[in-house]
Amino acid sequence: MVELLLLVPLVTALLCGMSRSERSIFTLSVAGSLITALVAIPYCHAAFFQGPLDCGLWYLDPLSALFVCIIVAVTALVSVYSVEYLKHDRQEGEVNIRDLRYYHFLLHLFALSMLLVVVVDSLGLMWIAIEATTLVSAFLVGFYKKSEAMEASWKYLIICSVGITLALLGIILLYASSSGALPEGTDSLDWSVLRSVAERLDPALLKVSFILMLVGLGTKAGLAPMHTWLPDAHSQAPTPISALLSAVLLNCAMYGILRAHLLVEAAVPGFSSSLLVAFGLFSLLIATAFILTSRDLKRFLAFSSVEHMGIIALGFGIGGPLGIFGALMHLIAHSLTKTLMFFSAGNVIQKYGTREMREIKGLGRTMPVTAGLLIAGMAAIAGTPPFAIFIGEFFILSGALASGAYVPAGLFLLLIVAVFAGMTYRVLGMCSGEPQEGVSEGEIGRWRLLPMAVLAMTVLVLGIYQPGPFMDAISAIGRLFGVSI
Question: Residue 481's pLDDT is what?
Fold first, then answer.
């Protein structure tokens, strides 16, 4: 009954779209996202600790379950944060009741499409679901209907559609590579079937397939140089949606890359790993340059997403127990920390009425709680101990050194130090000094601080202590990659 996991966000979207009052829309949205998270728990628990759930059309293994957990958790937090965020927009006359219905209808359709990506067995259906995430989220990027937002939405739609077309060609070649591996008269694009015959897939076709899928899905994942849609879309979308784009949508594309990576590594060891390392380091390099020069707060965070997707790709490319554990920790920690950072940015932007970091001063006096959470988020996202991202970066670096990849390890260390310096300078600059004239003291909302505090506490605790069940789940994922964690 995996369908139940998909039915809840669908029903929630429809009910939000039909609701007539602001209060009922918010109540349905929050309740629906929380119910979805609760429904996901038994499925994910079973996948982590009892083995894959193979239900024909649906397939849930430990890797799928991890992404399901991230999707439902971040969606629930975004739903809670969106209540006061959109109330403020309505008070300012930027949205009306029709816009609220539209926003929450699309929000839960977006969650549904992302869940579809990670629970279908067929790589062909996964491709369709990834394209659905593009179509739904494009409307959310252009939600405010301003010229800049509409331009960013079209740019996002066109670039990602080109990328996903390349990914489709890669999937077709992957299908062709299985012609000699499967019994005569049978064919399949199901992950579970291809995984069982991965060693017998055609190596030449697999190589070309992976290159196309890496470039195509890497466009959606925000890997450089295919990342150009990302800063525009993140800067123009409503801030809660920016959090979903960064913390969840990019992961869905990375999920597709990892599925292909597992197949290629079984047939052509080292090929896909080398490409992941190269794209990861290049993404980190490009992101560092823009992080150090960006002036727009949301574009600044968008380039941080490019950086961290590069680090995740680097970790999986390095492989081994250290690299895989570091990449998985980093993937989880980035999703939670970047959500915290975008929530903090949403508070600041609504309070100050600008995204220009040079015009934002004195946060410590005007919004002390938000400022504290923003600084905590900055320390976490920059890889400061004892936050969880530090654990991920430490193990990725250790894995690179242990495997003899000294040049990638050196570049990685140099670039994350540069990012740390740039982020510290920018964020502390906003929190210190005197606020601009006309900015009153006081938080912009109380309830929206709750999900922010939960996120800050979670990334701190995960950096200090990883519970036994958490490590058991990570170990189950590690076995898919052929390592013991």
Answer: 94
What are 98's two structure tokens? 């029709």
Q: What is the DSSP letter of 249?
A: I
Residues 90-144 have pLDDT tens digits of 998 899 999 999 999 999 999 999 999 999 999 999 999 999 999 999 999 999 9
d(CA 402, CA 97): 57
Peptide bond just before 269 cis, omega within 30 deg: no
CA dist., res. 343 & res. 85, Å (int): 9
Give the tens place of pLDDT for each residue, 36-82. Answer: 999 999 999 999 999 898 888 899 999 999 999 999 999 999 999 99
The pair of structure tokens assigned to 295 is: 């002036």
Q: Could you tell me the two tokens for 389?
A: 């991202």
CA distance 209 to 213: 6
In this structure, are residues 306 and 287 in contact, taking their beta carbons and an 8 Å threshold?
A: yes
The DSSP bridge partners found for residue 356 are 296
Strand-pair partners of 55: 58
- Coil, helix or strand at residue 385: coil
Res. 185: pLDDT tops 70:
no
Report the C-alpha gap between 482 and 469 in whole angstroms: 20
| Spatial CA neighbour of 373 closest among 337, 407, 397, 398 | 337
State the CB neighbour count (10 A cutoff) for residue 42: 12
> Phi-psi bin for 479: left (phi > 0), alpha (psi -120 to 50), beta?
alpha
Note the pLDDT tens digit of each residue in 196-224.
888 999 999 999 999 999 999 999 999 99
Q: How much is the mean pLDDT over the chain?
A: 94
Q: Which residues contact 439 (CB under 8 A, 6 or more apart)?
A: 351, 352, 362, 366
Q: Distance (Å, rounded) from C-alpha 455 to C-alpha 376? A: 10
Q: In 3D, which of 47, 31, 43, 34 has the Cα closest to residue 5? A: 43
pTM summary value: 0.96
